[in-house]
Please model this.
Amino acid sequence: MVTMENRLGLGFVRQPKSVLFGPGQRRQLPLTVKGIAKHALIVTDERMATTPEFAAMVASVRDAGVIVSVYDRALPDLPRSNILEAVALFAGKGIDATVGIGGGSVMDLAKSLAVVLANGGDVRDYYGEFKVPGPALPIVTVPTTGGTGAEVTSIAVIFDDDANVKMAITDAYLEPHAAIIDPELTLTCPPGLTAATAADALSHLIEAFTARPKNPTPEELATKIYVGKNRITDMFCAKGLALMNAGLKRVVQTPSDLAARSDVMFAAYCAGMAINTTGTAAAHAIQGPIAGLSHTPHGFGVGALLPYVMRFNLPYCTAEFAEIGRLLGVADGAQTELEQAHAGIARVEAMLAEVGAPLDLKAIGVKPEHFAQIAKQSMLAARLVLNNPGPMSEAAVSALLARGYAADRSWWTQP
Ligand SMILES: [Fe+2]
Model:
């Protein structure tokens, strides 16, 4: 029986030792790195590597007396081959910290390298939950998009290009030492990428706030990465949802609006803090196999699934969706709980629509002949399936996909 009751009154987050937020705060990078490293490996992608902001950050760390090596060939969706190449280049060179300056894949590369450079072996040895045998090198994250939340999470998502499958290292040893979140770095992020990463962050907030409280045993608290919705992650979700509500449309319409960039980037940080111990749920479980079929941006994939996942989950967490309606300012206590919940869901969809995110599955390349395969594979994401308030099954996911393909956003109660 699914219960949404947090019987233990639990609150639990994992987090970096320090989080520094604010426009211009990237200038603190040299002092942060100097405190932990003699020889830092800074990783980024080719686009970021050509920017004056990146050059200035590298120079500032060198000026602080730290030896800096740069790896600037990080690829999207972090293929394992990328990690193998960087390890071959830098193992045995005395690297004692990694710094990831970029989007989610870049930061995940910095985390993966910190694990392998400290523990040896192949990154494959560490796929799974709590498989890393000892501490990683200290990791510093500097995000350049407002979305994934990877700057504060203890997970690295890796595309194993030999096995052709998406894997992950989830381990508290991956928790960054420091996150430096500077919204100025997102000012040049193009509108399409801004919308997709913000849709991802919004999906994280919804999935974390409606995840199941797991009422974990002491043993589960110590050995599971995701322990369920709890009172601290709820606090981050509430703040993140309010900021997204105000900032999401503005940031896509006026990319130079630093206040809006700050709001969305802070919301993405809140979302990262929430999913780091709650995890995500059905939208992320189902998006995984869809990503393998059609190469939709992750944020648009989870965003397009969200309307149907929210409807599927609504009967199991009506009170939570009603609270989302109140947090987003579209519901009040005078309405019934169900009316408030409907208003909340409709507002989330309106926010996605306002930034041009697709709201149906045809738009992200899903076809009826894929339903069975997607449903089967989504059930393999066991950690996320367990988080979902609505009990997932292959049949339920197939039916949900059909609703999404037909863009059926009426108030159905059974997929
Ligand atoms: Fe995501």
About this structure: The two ends are 19 Å apart (CA to CA).
